[in-house]
Amino acid sequence: MMTNIIELTSVTKDFGKGRGIFDVSISIKPGMVYGYLGTNGSGKTTTIRNLMGFLKPQQGTVRIKGKDAWKDRTELKYDIGYVAGQFEFPRLRTGTQFLRYYAKYLGITDFTYMERLIELFKLDTSVNLKRMSKGMKQKTALVAAFMGDQEILILDEPTTGLDPLMREVFLKLVREEKAKGKTIFMSSHIFQEIEEVCDVAAIIHKGRVVDTVDVDKIRNPENKWFGITFNTAWDRADFVDRFRFDTVKIVGGRSCEVTIPAMDLMILLQHLKGYLLCEFQEKHTTLETYFKEAIRKGE
């Protein structure tokens, strides 16, 4: 069994003037949902085009299922469902004609799953491709990517143009595909999407991966952080004196911040008995705040 189903090692594709990707290394295990976060122009699409074998790296290697993504791109395309960040449909009239044409290309003869996806996304495939809205085109591209039931999905900004309800449908579909054991690489600039469905997320900035985070540790942190405001400054001072933890930070006359292991929440609540509180609020670290800090450090 392979250790990593997708592996980029020190990949560089330099377009000049600081554009491209530089020394990018990414390892993805089978069955993982891997998020790729970055601002516009950070290098997300360039990375994906190297994965798909559309670009040849100037340095480094890109391997999928142990094969070279550039040299073996013709063979690998049957193993990968792909949504491009920008796409053009072939000169076919309707969504139905396109999906049937693409199904034939993939060797699909049973259209049951394709029809389920069409129903899931509430897609009218009889509409002329040229007259489709951005959202309809995106849904058509998603159906095409998922209907082949390939073991790898590479998705470049897959929810662009989708309304909030269809985004939820997409995220539910990703969870279903993960449950089947699929490996999914998904770029986005929408933090909530990555935080909800991904196992790991890499952050790319100015063409370089500046950090990689275990997303579950953001969803379920080992430590909890609370902001507490007491009725009086005396109460705050008395609490800080009694609650002798190094993780207490005074932030105002009546306020303090406390960071504790999640398992010690009851201890904190016991210490707060007898004090009159004006505010007790748990403060969450989100993927967005983590991203901003990683970008700041990467500058």
From TrEMBL:
Matches recorded under PROSITE patterns: ABC_TRANSPORTER_2 (PS50893)
Domain of life where this protein originates: Bacteria
Coiled-coil residues: none
GO molecular function annotation: ATP binding; ATP hydrolysis activity
Keyword Protease: no
Any Pfam family hit: ABC_tran
Membrane-traversing stretches: none
Swiss-Prot/TrEMBL keywords: ATP-binding, Nucleotide-binding, Transport
Domain ABC transporter span(s) in chain numbering: 6-231
Gene3D superfamilies on file: P-loop containing nucleotide triphosphate hydrolases (3.40.50.300)
Protein name: ATP-binding cassette domain-containing protein
Species: Sporofaciens musculi
